[in-house]
Amino acid sequence: MAEKIDPRLRPFRSVLYIPGCKPRALDKARSLAVDAIIFDLEDAVSADEKDNARETLKEALAQGGYDPRVKIVRINGLDTDWGQADAEAVMQMDADVVLLPKVSSADDIDALAAITGDKPIWAMMETPRGMLNAAEIAAHPLLTGMVMGTNDLAKELQVRYRPDRMPLMTGLGLCLLAAKAEGVVIIDGVYNAFKDEEGLAAECEQGRDMGFDGKTLIHPAQIEIANKAFAPTPEEIELARRQIEAFEKVQAEGQGVAVVDGRIVENLHVETAREILAKAAMIESVLGF
């Protein structure tokens, strides 16, 4: 079983796609304030560049400089001409996770694990069948994260674009339930209009309210907005501290109920408050951005 990262504590606010075939982009990524990077060998790499991209990415990762960012490599599907070679190449790379596209069932994870062994696996959730099988996918012992592929999902569902994403809510909800049930990371899909800061901020807020751990991004200009949206706010941090203080005080005095701002504070609220403070501390001390 792969060791799971607790998404309640380890931030995944911003997860940026970087083409695995572009040395300049790979170099720039070392200085970007992102929590994780998806080094892409799939959609961002043309067919005639696939082989070169593997070597380019392997060299970049060997040079280092990406820590403390989580390093994720998205391979091509195993049903393509490049998937097998990609999976084998990842085992020679300094990568934390291998990301498999278009996962439809736990069998897809098994097929990849037959090549990558006990390497942690993330699943791109972007097909109707994947939505229906989200629970079994999330429960796979090597699965530690899920990434929503909302563009592909919208295409498969033949939906119309809406800012509120209502046509995608069933799929998003099924994957969220599955991820939370198994304690795995779940990252929201991309926002395509990278120059639309207001639209991105609104979709980030929606994703955060729904329970996503972070947002996949397609451009560095989107990083700051995602980091802000998925980080504890100063108000949340201050409230968390007061909740813990009030709860511990009534416990020490043998009283029954703690109240903060007219609301009862129970043990479950204190657990959430401690998670908020732990995540805020990690953002400040470990990530530093």
UniProtKB/TrEMBL annotation:
The HpcH/HpaI aldolase/citrate lyase domain, residue ranges: 13-220
What family does the entry list? Belongs to the HpcH/HpaI aldolase family.
Its taxonomic path starts at: Bacteria, Pseudomonadati, Pseudomonadota, Alphaproteobacteria, Rhodobacterales
Q: Which residues are involved in binding Mg(2+)?
A: 126, 152
Q: Which cofactors are named for this entry?
A: Mg(2+)
Q: Which Gene3D superfamilies match?
A: Phosphoenolpyruvate-binding domains
Give the PANTHER family listed for this entry. CITRATE LYASE SUBUNIT BETA, LYASE BETA SUBUNIT, PUTATIVE (AFU_ORTHOLOGUE AFUA_4G13030)-RELATED
This one is known as (3S)-malyl-CoA thioesterase
> What keywords would UniProt list here?
Magnesium, Metal-binding
Q: Does the keyword Transmembrane apply?
A: no
Gene Ontology MF, one: catalytic activity
- Superkingdom, taxonomy of origin: Bacteria
Residues reported to bind substrate: 74, 126
Which GO biological process annotations does it have? oxaloacetate metabolic process
Sorted alphabetically, which Pfam families does this protein's record hold? HpcH_HpaI
